[in-house]
Known about the structure:
Elements (H helix, E strand, L loop, with lengths): L17 E8 L3 H11 L5 E5 L12 E2 L1 H9 L12 E2 L2 E6 L2 E7 L11 E2 L2 H12 L5 E5 L1 E9 L2 E9 L2 E12 L7 H4 L5 E4 L3 E7 L9 E7 L2 E8 L3 E8 L4 H7 L1 H11 L4 H7 L6 E4 L2 E4 L4 E2 L2 E3 L14 H21 L4 H33 L4 H15 L2 H12 L8 H12 L5
Parallel strand pairs: 1-2, 1-11, 2-8, 5-14, 11-20
Antiparallel strand pairs: 3-7, 4-7, 5-6, 9-10, 10-11, 12-18, 13-16, 13-17, 14-15, 15-16, 19-20
Helix pairs in contact: 1-3, 1-8, 2-8, 6-7, 8-9, 8-12
The structure holds flavin-adenine dinucleotide (FAD).
Flavin-adenine dinucleotide (FAD) binds next to helix 1, strand 2, strand 9, strand 17 and helix 8.
Amino acid sequence: MSITPKEQPMTEISERPEQYDVVVAGAGPAGMMTGLCLALQGVAVAVLETAPSAARTFRGESISPDSVTALRRLGVLDQLPADRTMPVSGIRIVDAGQEVLTVRFSELADAEESPLEIPQDSLLDAIDAAAARFPSFRLIRGASVQELIRRGPRIVGVRYRIGEDENTITARVVVAADGRYGKLGAAAGLVSRKQPMRRDFLWFKVDPPAGWDLTRYQVHLADDAHVMCIPTVPGILRLGVNIPPGGLSRIRKAGLPSLYSSVARIVPDLGEATEHSVRTWRDTSMLEIFSSRCPRWSIPGLVLVGDAAHTLTPVLAQGVNHAILDAVVLGDQLGPALRAEESDIFVDERCRIFQELREPHVDQARALQFRQESAFAQSGALPTLARRSLYRTIDRLPVTKNAIWGRLYYSLAGGRNPAAEALDRLVARIPQTV
Ligand SMILES: Cc1cc2nc3c(=O)[nH]c(=O)nc-3n(C[C@H](O)[C@H](O)[C@H](O)COP(=O)(O)OP(=O)(O)OC[C@H]3O[C@@H](n4cnc5c(N)ncnc54)[C@H](O)[C@@H]3O)c2cc1C
């Protein structure tokens, strides 16, 4: 894909471009929710997506309680068949075969919703169905944004390719929701700093053995190796096994039996299940684990959301959550400004405020993830003994559990997160006729 770099001359606008208030590049959770949050306010929004359908290989399916609240209140959950969601009631951490920590979400202060497992294609289709109730929403699949269009210092639209055709959309705001490897931000000079972690991840799905508890997330640790076990629709398990950064070719060379025995060493109950379900490497999916931080999320006419602005690690499944909360806050900021046809300066200021409101909460989640990443990476007798003691201590302290999981999962309660007020305002703006 060729994205016009900053230095290149301005792309001319074709004679009759399509016009919207907002054009969104990328129809992942961030882009689709941005489309919904704007369309429900009557803002004309087009969402462009390279992929021809919502089907995805392996993506975030764990939806944090704050996002469940947002999806419920914005009418998305109503669009989901009941058999496409699975509630999760708690977490269990097992270290060296011993249970060291459990959390029951219903016991946390402010707990209302449980986390939900929702396959990402089902979630995206449900957001599409919720957004399609508003006539100003348009989703164009198979449309790949090729370049940003500038007028002076301002981004004023995008050029995109669909099949053999090239088209242009002009808009007052371009939203780059193009994900962790997105190129639009960098093309506009918004460059992220990437922080690699001490592990990558191999994901795959397995049929759970009889008696496996499918109501809780489980993390099984053995020295510096771990397996994340995540209940997944339709009643199966998603496993994530850590591998050394860039170590995929070595793992593959060692062969599948070595993967089976690694899993069995950490979670004896799952060795056979892995052997049964993972028959070729095509049944697995590699996730490069890194965190990224973009110092500035917007320039005049362009704003980044979701992974494009801040990629998180998979710990505690916060990627989709922050993508959704970004959309809620950005939608709340931009909707009234665009409806009132405020000046560009005013609209750009809304984008800046969006970052100001969201960034502290993303940073908080990232800091918690770094602490967890560091605990998972401990190796050797003494460090892992210290880790087990720490988890056991936390297990005995409800206050600490609240400070960790309560703050992370239920931040919309108690006025701690500006996304709560943004959500209230958005819900109040949904037309009565819908
Ligand atoms: C294997 C894996 C497992 C994960 N597990 C979890 C989990 O359990 N829980 C969790 O919360 N998070 C998880 N994540 C992270 C989560 O999927 C992301 O944080 C989340 O999807 C971010 O949403 P987004 O909309 O910002 O980006 P994405 O979901 O990446 O969406 C970006 C979209 O933009 C499109 N696009 C890119 N460039 C263009 C272009 N030029 N023109 C048009 N379209 C474009 C892409 O095709 C894509 O559809 C996982 C990620 C992976 C890869």
